[in-house]
């Protein structure tokens, strides 16, 4: 069953004050599109979600969904949550413990005045669609994490929403279940005809689930684009850390970039003007003495920290290019061979061919 066939998706400008914090975000999502809303703690993700759902009133801006105005600060329009045709999957699912799975799913249609028998029929169809009809009679307490997630999704879809909002949909699951449920959720979202916003901290969830990423910091948009573009070319330190790249700002003249923090880096491509450079930690080599040979980017620094990462180790090197720092990823064997210790000196090098440069 494909739910909702909105004429237009979500078009919104969200202006909301929460104490000293202000959210100022334009968020548009096309029908069938999945957008991941990412940002550090306190950046305004929950505020955006609650504002879309109608739990917080706009103090400026407007929300239009499938051609209907849900909120408009200028005309003091504010439709209540149950009139918005927005399905929400909360982080901890918030299933009603005293109701069966079927009645949990039927709850949305019931609160939209759908008669009991018809609401239950809708709920049955939704559970079948998600491959869990056998759970209809179960109580939430007996469900596994993955099952509860599917029931919560069924409940959100049962109101035939034009917008589906998922708040950290996989955060409550253990690592193995998460892997499985993530793939399943991706398929389910692909079948949903309405717009979807997934709020997440997790870059892997965002990349797997979303067609487009919207990154906010301090209530403002800092970067948007397809996952591959954002992960390849981060525009802020937060995004660079999220996707695990080294990032620095500077000014390019040809292949040479004068970094804002001091020092110079040679990049793969030629450019002129303000720019950002990015390179992978795995592209950085570490040495105890100044290396000879081809790499043109060589810096001496201090080991600032060591952290296991997958099969290898991430080494933070501070004091490179002035007060800058970079992260190198090396193998356990290389770590043992180099005998690196926090506070020790180390040489870092990266080939120019590994350094991406793009306008800032
Ligand atoms: N009721 C409130 N009154 C005052 N300030 C609030 C209120 N609710 C949230 N804030 C502030 O608004 C800002 C954004 O919070 P929000 O919960 O939207 O961020 P978030 O990105 O969802 O964070 P997290 O990832 O930690 O959930 C924070 O600085 C928070 O302290």
From TrEMBL:
Keywords: ATP-binding, Cell membrane, Ion transport, Iron, Iron transport, Membrane, Molybdenum, Nucleotide-binding, Transport. Residues 292-359 form the Mop domain. Residues 5-243 form the ABC transporter domain. GO terms for molecular function: ATP binding. Pfam families: ABC_tran, TOBE. InterPro entries: AAA+_ATPase (IPR003593), ABC_SmlMolc_Importer (IPR050093), ABC_transporter-like_ATP-bd (IPR003439), ABC_transporter-like_CS (IPR017871), ABC_transpr_FbpC (IPR015853), Mo/tungstate-bd_C_term_dom (IPR008995), Mop_domain (IPR004606), P-loop_NTPase (IPR027417). SMART domains: AAA. This is ABC transporter ATP-binding protein. The lineage of its organism: Bacteria, Bacillati, Actinomycetota, Actinomycetes, Propionibacteriales.
